[in-house]
Input
Amino acid sequence: MNQILVTKKLYITPELKRKKKMYKFEFFLSVFLVFVLISAYIYAEYDRNKSEQVSQDILANLEFPEEDTTVAKNNVLVVVLDDDEQEESKDNNQINQNMQTTANGFQYATIGTVNIPKINVTYPIIDGVTDSTEETEELLKISPTKFWGPNPNKVGNFCIVGHNYRNTRFFSKVPTLETGDIVQVTDLSGKTIQYKVYNKYQVDPTDVSCTTQLTNGKREVTLITCTDDSKHRVVVKARETK
Output
């Protein structure tokens, strides 16, 4: 008896065609999304590197004034201001002299530097003119920025805010600081004061109680940055060491 071999033919139904198209669409969509995410990451990293370079350029070009050794001559009228008025006048003059403008038209000046040895960061501290939210967001891309309070190393609570990029740049490592760590602030006169961390905690983004100026006549520094998930703010408080 002869055996007849029958080959089954696979029929492509409309349903199968539809599924095949869907699989192709999902595949190309997945590839496209991966490409977009990689591109966005590369661009963000480029932008951060560019911001870091701008900040370091500001730091490299920052010059502190030499001590004034001029001696008054006879028959010359000399008007002497008290120390606070003299320092404030010098600070204001230097701030006005080093004003710069961002690409979006916001003006800012460098008002000092912050150095945190434990996390190996040194940055210029910049300050805007209007203190608007838009201005602050723009300046934070450049360098840590004055958020509230007096000028650097003055009596009161000098508050500095910086981005947490979840790497080693800007204030990314500030959340790792502990009680006893040192924060050094140099003002425009070239004077450096050391501050010792005495408290660290988290607050909601709308909580600005950390900016209070009730320091009992002491010099303080407050460092502010985001948590890694950006849901809260990390506040690090430091007080002048004697």
Notes: The mean pLDDT is 81.
